[in-house]
Amino acid sequence: MEMNWIYLILADKRFLWILFIVNLFGTIYGYIWYEGQLKVTPDIFLIFVPDSPTATLFFVFVLIAFLFNRNFSLMEALAIVTLFKYGVWAVVMNIWTLAATGDLPWTGYMLMASHSAMAIQGLLYAPFYRFKIRHLVIAGIWTLHNDVIDYVFMQYPKYGALYMYVKEIGYFTFWLSIASLAIAYFWGIKSKRIYALSPQNNS
C-alpha cells in the first residue's frame, strides 16, 4: 500500500533509531524519577508504580521489532493503550495542579510536553500495528488491574498538591483507561490503513 509522506518518515529506519534512543533514555529517566516512591513501595507493587516509563518501555520493544521489520503485537497493544492513557493523565494532573495551587514548576511544563509526545507517538504508529482483539484484551486486563493497584491499594503516582482529590483522580483514571482501550480498538483494529515496515520503506 502506498504511503503518504508522514508515514514514509515514520517508517524510515533513521527516524526509528532516533525515536528508539529518545524513548530508551526517556524510560530510564522515568524510572529514576520514580526512585523516591519506589523506595517506599512494597515489593509486590513495584512493577505497577512507574506507569509512564513502563508505557514507554512497551514502545521501546515495539520499536526494536520495527527496526528488524517485525511486529510485536502484544507490546503494540500495551503501548498504544498505556502511552495514550498516561500521556493524557500526566497532562491533566499538571493542569489540575496549576489550577489548584496557582503555580507549576518548570518540571511540570516539561512533563506536559513529554507526555503529550508520548500519547501522540503511540497513535501515529497505529497504521503499522498488527495486534488483534486478544492482545487488546490482555492490555485491558493489565491497564484496569493497574488502576485497582493504584486506587484500591493506593500505589498511584504521587502528586502532593492533589492528595485530597484522590477519589476524583481514581474515577477519572478509570474512565481514561476505558477511553484509551476504545481508542486503541478504533485506531489499531477497526478503522486503519495497514502499512508494512519493509526494507523498501526504510531507505
From TrEMBL:
Highest taxon of source: Bacteria
Keywords on record: Membrane, Transmembrane, Transmembrane helix
Transmembrane segments: 15-32, 44-68, 77-96, 108-129, 136-157, 169-188
InterPro entries to which the protein is assigned, alphabetical: DUF1405
Span of the signal peptide: none
Protein name: DUF1405 domain-containing protein
Annotated organism of origin: Falsibacillus albus
